[in-house]
Amino acid sequence: MQAEIVVLPGDGIGPEVTAAAVQVLRAVAQRYGHQFSFEERLIGGAAIDATGEPLPLDTLAAAQRADAVLLGAVGGPKWSDPKAKVRPEQGLLAIRKALGLYANLRPVKPHPAALGASPIKPHLLTGVDLMVVRELTGGIYFGAKQRRGDAASDLCEYTVAEIERVVRHACTLARARRGHVTSVDKANVLETSRLWREVATRVVRDEFPEITLEHQLVDSMAMHLLAKPREYDVIVTENMFGDILTDEASMLAGSLGLLPSASLGAGRVGLYEPIHGSAPDIAGLGVANPYATILSAALLLRHSLGLEAEARCVEKAVDGALDAGVFTADLAPAGRGVGTRAATAAVLEQLELECQPVVLRD
Ligand code: NAD
Ligand code: IPM
Ligand code: MN
């Protein structure tokens, strides 16, 4: 198959981890006889430096034309002045909104070989396999923001339609999994959460009677997620709660550097990015964990290109690298760990072992 993939490296470790994922996608293309083309564009701080805008028009246009978008991360101290007029993060929010990517899928499945990297006791981690569906284009991130004298406000808004579509997405995923959805809100305090709970209850009752739905308040959810992570299947929640809970959930897997994501919507184009940020503290050192971005590339193969076998092959290759003990510093005991290149090379080597070569017809 032919596919055009727009690559948005962004800032900090973004260029290092997207380069790794592109190498893996090239290897997949070669092995399975696909033609993938990669078009690199600017976003975030790099785009502000070059053009003054965090999401230049040609970047958005390229993304809209593409079959899929692979993104690294945006942001960093250089652009973090609280008084700055433009910020790298605005570019990320703008592209999510413009592409209509309301469902952000963040799978969490601790790898047996990496259990030691987690601060959680291993016996709580075996069998954990959960999928967080984070609403991505609404809520407090996108409501009106104001400064009035010595006060500031951020408005949190949700419409019924916005809640319905993301809950439907979560339920559809749950149908193909264990049939359980946990909807997370703060309905004891927030009006948006009371609407969220009402809509989630109705959607499941009317459209997904086979799904068991449970409601959980976000504060106690933060605790349960660490205390009994095995009990969760699909977790659906609003934008900011999903952001926070998934960084927490990364500690089940052992590192932020292991969690991929897929952002999907009503439109044709999906966006794929690790859940971590630009990691300014390690940027440029060649030590960033590339697995989260490589696993995001696997989600791209699955969700945007419909290449399930290829997606599985990439996931098996990362599993294989972890099984072989190829750990970057974030996963290894202090002072140990291989660099980004060696970890990527290990995945490429596993690809050779795990994936069926192309059968050439004569
Ligand atoms: P961060 O995710 O960048 O880093 C948190 C910690 O995790 C750091 O110690 C970092 O070194 C480590 N880490 C993250 N990814 C890693 C990887 N692949 N390998 C090894 N270690 C890794 O979060 P932060 O420090 O709070 O934010 C830094 C900047 O990134 C901010 O400007 C923020 O806005 C931005 N950010 C961007 C995205 C995105 O583009 N999607 C996501 C989160 C944060
Ligand atoms: C993420 C990030 C972004 C978010 C920031 C950089 C805008 O933390 O992708 O998780 O909060 O959505
Ligand atoms: Mn985040």
Walk me through this protein's architecture.
The chain has 362 residues and is an alpha/beta fold. The protein starts with a strand and ends in an 8-residue tail after the last helix. The radius of gyration is 20 Å and the shape is globular. 42% of the residues lie in helices and 17% in strands. The chain contains twelve helices and twelve strands. It folds into two domains: 1-105 and 257-362, 3-Layer(aba) Sandwich (Isopropylmalate Dehydrogenase), CATH 3.40.718.10; 119-253, Isopropylmalate Dehydrogenase. The strands form two sheets. A ten-stranded mixed β-sheet has the order 2-1-3-12-11-4-5-10-8-9, sandwiched between helices. Helix 1 (14-32) runs parallel beside helix 12 (340-354), helix 6 crosses helix 7 (191-207) and helix 11 crosses helix 12 (340-354). The chain has helices spanning 14-32, 44-51, 57-65, 88-98, 122-125, 160-175, 191-207, 218-227, 239-253, 291-303, 308-323, 340-354; strands spanning 2-10, 35-40, 68-73, 103-108, 130-135, 145-148, 151-154, 180-185, 212-217, 234-237, 262-264, 270-272. It binds nicotinamide-adenine-dinucleotide (NAD), 3-isopropylmalic acid and manganese (II) ion. Nicotinamide-adenine-dinucleotide is lined by residues 13, 17, 73-76, 89, 92, 256-257, 273, 276-282, 288-289, 292, 330.
